[in-house]
Structures
1.
Amino acid sequence: MSSLTITLVRGDITEQHTDVIVNAANSSLLGGGGVDGAIHRRGGPEILEDCRKLRASQFGRGLPTGKAVATTAGKLHAQWVVHTVGPVFSREEDRSQLLASCYRESLRVAGELGARTVAFPAISTGIYGWPMDDGARIAVETVRDAQTSVEEVRFVLFDEQAYAAFAARVR
Ligand code: APR
């Protein structure tokens, strides 16, 4: 059982050279802003074509929150993009398990594909409003506890605050 290495990178997830790049998508799978917008912009139309095929087949009603599905990575330096839908942060309801599921399910899909290296963004901590420190805690704990054949998980953090939040958890 190969042990999993967790690495942190300060930068743009669309520039990573990994087998899988994980997209912080929405349930429509038809694109958006943030990571989603960057991946579709840099990856090109093939990714959206694959997403449209998924919407026309097994995900007719969209990808549920916490689930993950793979498409081509188009022009990105990856073999696949794994799209996952994070929960929108709520003060009334604890959606932590749904956020954990995004990491767990993305690793499961990546492992099934035979991926060895996986780049994750800080899911839900942007437009979906999840506090960064708690998002980092859930991300690192879930990945650490995962039973996976993936060998490296690379958290790609877009700014210093995100990087510091993850670094405090990975120590
Ligand atoms: N590379 C790495 N991280 C990035 C990048 C990038 N190119 N762009 C943004 N981020 C960071 C943000 O700073 C944030 O910390 O990724 C984290 C997630 O932010 P979002 O992309 O806004 O994703 P999320 O909060 O999960 O919201 C998803 O936003 O883009 C739409 O279609 C998407 O509706 C969905 C929602």
2.
Amino acid sequence: MIMPSLIGHRGCAGHAPENTLASIKMAAQMGCGWIEADASLLVDGSVILFHDDTLDRCTNGVGPIENLTWADVRLLDAGAWWGTGRQYAGVHVPLLSEALMCCKSLGLGFNIELKVRGDEGEKLAFAVGEILKTVDHGPVLISSFDMGALQVFAGDAPKGLLYDILPDDWEKTAQNLDAKTVHLWAEKATQDQVDVIKHTGRAVYLFTINDKSQMKLHNVDGVFTDFPDRIAGAV
Ligand code: G3P
Ligand code: MG
């Protein structure tokens, strides 16, 4: 098994603002051995942790991120929006390199999800590969919904396929990409799919499980969760 049974989703998004260093630290505090976070490319080639296409939900900025540089993003507040007490006000959007160093210092593995927008998959995969070459990091797994980005990723890290709905040709893709893991949307995943994937020797992870009642399938290797405290013992 490459990743453990509990993986903090976007760090630990149920307990701290997603895709921030505060969220990664919270995951470690809650006993996760690995976290997942979303790697997004900026127009100047910087790679940040960010999920959405626009700044609005998770920062004090507005509008699309597609034409922004690190100079635009680095001063944004990515924590004031979270919760009711403003206890995370002042938290910033991290660079992927900062997040890698943070994970390393906390002993966390890091599932980097390549969050591809438009036709930038190749550029993002290349940029992440370069960052991994220069930053001292711990265990990493690269995943994406974008198979083209995974195809061009040239680093040593194992690869995981992300699917909302498992397509018929998933195994061919997994063979072509030498993917070690398959990450399925829990709402659409079936026991047959889990069993077939496991039969090929690949590990299966479900996203996003935030309540034990959502854990309807067995034989999975792990889950992505915003609330590791609620899910402990369910997998
Ligand atoms: O990597 C699993 C999960 O994070 C994929 O969906 O939208 O939360 O990035 P999303
Ligand atoms: Mg993600």
